Amino acid sequence: MKKVYPDATAALAGLLRDGMTIMAGGFGLCGIPDVLIDAVRESGVKGLTVISNNAGIDGVGLGVLLETRQIAKMISSYVGENKTFAKQYLGGELEIEFNPQGTLAERIRAGGAGVPAFFTKTGVGTLIAEGKEVREFDGEQYVMERGLFADISLVHAWKGDTEGNLVYRKTARNFNPMMASASRMTVAQVEHLVQPGEIDPDHIITPGIFVKRMIHVQNPNKRIEQRTTRTRAGAEAAGAGGGAI
User: Distance between CA 200 and CA 217 in Å, rounded?
Assistant: First the structure.
């Protein structure tokens, strides 16, 4: 089975439709499948439910789908960096299902493991628990959360072989591996594409059985969400000297 496609449009051909549920990996702007997201935008599908830790930022990542109003609902945890997101939500144009970050991660993991629901202490007694079953275990209250499973998962990996075995790097490992197992179809974009056998089996994080389609994205644009800098100590000392030699 050939898994490597020439580009994102070809890799998503026949998979996208209005009203579907999409998982999009990454954390902040790290490890986001931006090339695949751009192809979703170009397809014009709308009414999407998107499961992602956050919604990118304005004009980047999932932010491009918000700008075109292709997303109807977000299931996410942190959305504070996206003004378009806030405007649409406050204007009643976008439905949001907020989750504590750990709960979101476990809901995705559970969906991939075939677990329909689980109980957690997180959110008990708060707005998060409203409308959900609360049950007592060993004298403690727990709220029931449903597992999440999507029609398609879009993930970004640092390295992959042509059989779909994937390796993630650092923060990009946060949500991508779980999402790769929690949908009917996973499409991956990889920075380094190698042949089978070139990845140490002990280093494989997502087995190729979960990945059906792939694209090779060399030298992806790795944006910094927030750049924080300070003057070097040496420069501060030179400035304090008033320029005297």
Answer: 21
